[in-house]
Design brief:
Length: 333
C-alpha cells in the first residue's frame, strides 16, 4: 500500500494515523504527531456514511452465513425467499454485494471486515446506543471527543484551518458523536454546519441586505455562545454558499446511463456531498447518518434490508463515477 492510499484509508477509518493516542485512549491532542507534508500532498476530503443497527455490516461480510443462519430467530432462506447468495469476495449478492464487487474491481472500494470485541463482550455491552457512541469517538470512552472533533483540532493546531477556511465541517445528520467536543475547548470555527440533501436554505432572507446585516449584528449581541450564535455568525456565508451549490449543473447530465444517480435519499445525499466537495476544497468532512441509515436490525424492517442496501451501494457506484468525473478521485474518500 503506498503512502497516498494509506493516508486516504486512515482518514476514512477514524484518522487513527493522525491520532494514535486518542484512538486508544483519551490522550492530549497536543501530543499528536502530524506530518504536514503528507497532508499537504494529499489534501483528503472525507464523506462519512455511518450505518448503525444489528445487521448493518452483514451485506459486506456474508462469509460466515452458514455458521449463523441457524441461530437466527427467523429462517433466512424463507424470510428472504432464497435471496441469500454470497459473492466471490463474501458479500451478500442481493444486498448490494454485486455493486460492491464492481467497486472492488474498479479499485473504488476497500473492505475492512468487522471483528469481535473482547472489551465489549467482557462489559456485556451489545446495546446499539453505547456501540454507536463508542464507534463515533474511536474509543470505548463514551465521554471523549468524537473522531471529527479530534481531526478538526489537529488541523487547527497545525494551521490547516483558520479564520479564512470556508465551511470545513458539514453534517447531514445534525448532532452526532463524531463532533462531540468532550474535554476539548470549544471552537466555533470547528463546529459543523447542518445541511440537507435538498439544499433547503434556512439562511436566506428576502429583505434588504443592509437590514439583514443589522439584524445579524443585533442577534449576535443577544445570543449566548453556542450553536445558535455560531449559525448567525455564518448566516450570510451559508446563504451564498447554498445558492452557489444549487446553481451547479446536475451530474446526471454528464454521467453515463448506468452510472446516473437514482431518485432516492441515499443518492441525493451523496450527490449533494460530492457537489459541495468538488466546489469547495476547504470542506474536510461531510457526515451522513440518519434518515434511512439506521435501523438495520433483523427485527426492524428486515424485509426491506435487501432493497435498502441495493439502493445504498447503487448510489455509491454513481458517487464514485461522479467523483472521477470532477477529477477528485485522489481526494474524496
Amino acid at each position: 500500500m503506498d503512502r497516498r492510499d494509506f493516508l486516504k484509508l486512515s482518514m476514512y477509518t477514524g484518522c487513527s494515523f493522525l491520532l494514535p493516542a486518542i484512538s486508544r485512549a483519551a490522550g492530549p491532542i497536543d501530543n499528536v504527531i502530524f506530518d504536514s507534508a503528507i497532508y499537504e500532498a494529499n489534501r483528503p476530503q472525507t464523506i462519512m456514511i455511518f450505518l448503525y443497527g444489528g445487521a448493518s455490516e452483514l451485506s459486506g461480510n456474508f462469509t460466515n452465513y452458514n455458521d449463523f443462519k441457524d441461530l437466527s430467530e427467523s429462517n433466512y432462506d424463507l424470510h428472504f425467499r432464497g435471496s441469500v447468495n454470497s459473492t466471490a469476495n463474501g458479500f451478500w449478492a442481493e444486498a448490494g454485494g454485486n455493486y460492491m464487487e464492481e467497486l472492488l474491481t474498479a479499485h473504488d472500494l476497500n473492505v475492512f471486515r468487522t471483528c469481535f470485541s473482547q472489551v465489549r463482550w467482557d462489559a456485556d455491552n451489545r446495546s446499539h446506543g453505547s456501540c454507536v457512541s463508542q464507534n463515533q469517538r474511536g474509543t470505548f470512552n463514551e465521554d471523549s471527543s468524537g473522531i471529527f472533533a479530534n481531526l478538526a483540532h489537529v488541523l487547527r493546531a497545525n494551521s490547516f484551518i483558520d479564520e479564512n477556511t470556508k465551511l470545513p465541517f458539514l453534517t447531514m445528520d445534525g448532532d452526532s458523536g463524531f463532533y462531540a467536543t468532550g474535554d476539548l475547548i470549544r471552537d466555533p470555527l470547528l463546529s459543523p454546519i447542518s445541511i440537507n440533501e435538498n439544499l433547503d436554505n434556512p439562511f436566506h432572507r428576502n429583505s434588504e441586505p443592509d437590514y439583514s446585516t443589522e439584524m445579524d449584528i443585533l442577534a449576535q449581541l443577544i445570543n449566548a455562545p453556542g450553536k445558535i450564535k455560531d449559525a448567525f455568525e455564518k448566516r450570510a456565508e451559508m446563504d451564498a454558499f447554498i445558492e452557489d451549490i444549487k446553481a451547479l449543473p446536475d451530474p446526471n447530465d454528464t454521467l453515463s446511463e448506468e452510472n446516473k444517480y437514482e431518485d432516492n435519499s441515499f443518492a441525493k445525499k451523496l450527490k449533494t456531498a460530492i457537489k459541495i466537495m468538488a466546489y469547495n476544497a476547504d470542506s474536510q468532512v461531510i457526515s451522513l447518518s440518519t434518515s434511512g441509515l439506521g435501523g438495520w436490525d433483523d427485527h426492524n424492517d428486515a424485509r426491506n434490508y435487501l432493497s435498502r442496501m441495493e439502493e445504498l451501494f447503487r448510489a455509491l457506484k454513481s458517487a464514485m463515477a461522479h467523483i472521477h468525473t470532477v477529477g477528485k478521485g485522489e481526494q474524496i474518500n
